[in-house]
Amino acid sequence: MVCSCCPPRLSRHSKQYRRALFAPSSRSSWLSAVAVLVLVWIYLNHSGPNGWPPGSRHRPPPLHPHHHPHPHPHHGGYQPFPPFRPPPQPPATDDTKEPPPPEPTMTLPKPAADDAPSSSTSSALPIPTAILPQGIYVGATLPASNRFPKSIDAFRGIPYAETTGGENRFRPPVPLPPSNYTYLATRFGPTCPREAKTDKDSGEDCLNANIYRPAALVGNDGFLRGSENGTTKGRPRLPVVVYVHGGAFNGGTGKERNMASFVAWADAPMIGINFNYRVGALGFLPSALTAREGLLNLGLRDQQLMLEWVRDNIEAFGGDPDNVTIMGVSAGSHSIGHHIMSYAQAGKKAPFVKAILESGATTARAVFYPTHPRHLVQFEQFLLEAGIPGVAEREVFARLRELPLDTIVKASRAVWDMYVDTVTWPFQPVIDGPNALANSSRHAASSPAPTVLPDLPINLWRDAKHLRIPVLTGFNTNEGTSFVPTSADTNEDFREFFRALIPHFNDADLAALEKLYPDPVKTPRDEDNPYRTVPKGVGRQFMRLDAAYSHYAYICPVLQTAHFLSRSGDGDTKAPPVHVYRFAATAARGTANHGDEGNVVSHDMDSLAPADGPKMPGLLAVADAMHGAWWRFVVSKTGDPNEGAPDGATKWPAFVSPFSRDETDPTTETADKGEIAVFGDGNNERFASSHHGSWFSRAPEKNPGVPVHASALSDFERQACAFWWARIELSEGFGVRGQDERRGPRDHSEDAPGPVAAVRAKL
Question: Considering only CA atoms, which of 10, 6, 37, 7 is closest in space to residue 22?
Fold first, then answer.
């Protein structure tokens, strides 16, 4: 039934996290705004305990006679609007451990019981407010506590683009139109639908960001101290760090890293941001059809729109658009590597000036053409799982846009499950440049789009077609333990894993691989074999596979970034500073696994010092050192993590590549090259604290280890990287040797890991 008394619903904004409070006729009068808010509160109290009727589709006249909200251009009809009362926060996880925000000092509807503010909240706290072209956003203040050494202003769920649902599904992100409405930005917005089952916290209105800054920036008028009408006139601008989440391009959310904690524990003021972007099939659906439609790499385009949104809007929060650092882990780090390449070709200024890449690089894992046989197979499997096999090509995306979201997500997950064990993951970034359709009989895109990845990443490195910016990058000791099969027990298991991962690995490649990583089963009494000791419950090849896959997918790509950047000086152009780290503190399985550094970097006290958990003073010292280096890099105009370090701190040497310009030559030129910082060497407090006899026969004693020390790359690391770098073509483009000679139309379907014809036969 149509409701005749509901407040207006702004259809161009998310139904869960952009709640219109009022439409001011004059932004100069804050008192008038408060008065309107009070009236809204009175109205809501009279509308009953359920607030706005959730089933309403009515759009009443605008609140102001001269204000006409723009209808959402691509919203597939109005959706039910939720009650005004903010929903309870999701269950506590590693990515949502910020304290509940206090109530603003203005009169607002009371939050739900489980969202009650901390008793330490001061009633005198000013209301953080930001005026943007797209609207006015009212945040909340997170009070200082044992978790946060200082109060932090939080603006959550701020949209940076239109919904990705309806006609916007499988299309590039759409910027938001102007608005003068005001929105409550105190709760996280929806996350993007991912490979896990859909839930109440995810949806297609997911392109939103969370912004954190020191609370001291805000005056009692709700605007920046020293500002005039919300402008930043006469005020120094703060450095900004934007976090790009990981998740194999099939999962993850922006809030996985506690950026409020990152900002709160930094000794210098800064602004921290995390955000969501599309993942899985909704964000990365490579195929010949997708390429022709100009719809490749949508998740990367979401990221670029977000970075450009930060450039255009961050001054309203007190940030400096000319001092933005992007930081990411895993897929987020791969993404940053792609942006370092992309913006060098874009003909416009990059919206960032420094980068932190944790466990990832543009050359990491596999970056294929959209017409690579693996992607062709996975695309057709996706259509089959979505229930639309055999649809005429011109109708495919129209049908996909009509399907229920749950159908799309389940199909995406089903295809993911087919490939997760072999780590040949679907729905990945692909090359979308001029040669993207080299395996197709049709070359013209019907909807031309800007190029994100114009060429093979290794070609862009070798041709110096990349940004020359300061970079902090590194890896964890055991990057592969989270991915390789735990059951691998024989040498044939070892070989078969790499045959599936890299189909064009030939017998000579496999023989060289076996020599580089000797078989612990063949020589079980060889005490020099580093892979002979394995955790309980896993196969005898587990640590051998971990070492080889770690080098292939993460460590050597990271070092390749450092190699090319540190040697990118040319004539009068000096190479930018590069700093490389290794994270060595052990956790599950007694290893330093992929992603283990995340809570250490953010200095997340819920993880490092839980109230009822074990004491880990050594890991806290590692966090002090690591987080300190990260925030100093963000603040420094030159990207130097040593700048402003306390007296007596270990100096982190800049990385100088031990490789010649022919990156496959492992010969060290001088003894002082290839230095890195090692964080947490010998620390096992997380592993020892969580030990229940499941990994080794008895629990080890806790060892605090060394917070940080400098080290040089080993001979083995140089040899391993020389091996993988010499074979990088097998994981790029079409995954075959000599690709430069093959550019142009060619049918590679015979190279497929599973023949395309076999899938088509099922359709």
Answer: 37
CA-CA distance, 90 to 201, in Å (whole number)?
7
Q: How far apart, in whole angstroms, are the C-alpha atoms of residue 413 and residue 280?
A: 8
CA distance 554 to 631: 23
State the residue for tokens 């980068």: 355
Listed in sequence order, the residues at least 6 apart from 2 whose beta carbon sits closer than 8 Å to its beta carbon are: 56, 57, 58
Give the phi and the psi of residue 550 in degrees, each rounded to 5.
Answer: -55, -45
Q: Which two tokens mark 761? A: 């036969």
Secondary structure (3-state) at 327: strand
What integer best gives the mean pLDDT of the chain? 82
> What pLDDT, in 10s, does the model give residues 446-501?
445 678 999 999 999 999 999 999 999 999 999 999 999 999 999 999 999 999 99
Rounded to an integer, what distance in angstroms lies between the CA atom of residue 625 and that of residue 712?
Answer: 19
Token couple for 18: 């952009």
The pLDDT of residue 539: 97
Angle formed at CA 540 by CA 539 and CA 541, multiple of 5 degrees:
90
The 8-class DSSP code of residue 625 comes to H
Query: What are the residues whose beta carbons fall under 8 Å from the beta carbon of 55, sequence distance 6 or more?
Result: 1, 3, 80
- Residues 580-626 have pLDDT tens digits of 999 999 999 999 999 999 999 999 999 999 988 889 999 999 999 99
Q: Which residue ranges does the chain devote to CATH 3.40.50.1820?
A: 30-358, 468-725
User: CA-CA distance, 586 to 606, in Å (whole number)?
Assistant: 18
* Alpha carbons 22 and 63: distance in angstroms, whole number: 8
- Cβ(221)–Cβ(308) below 8 Å: no
Cα separation, 255 vs 245, in Å, equals 8
Active-site positions read 330
CATH superfamily, region 468-725: Alpha/Beta hydrolase fold, catalytic domain (3.40.50.1820)
CATH 3.30.300.20 fits 30-358, yes or no: no
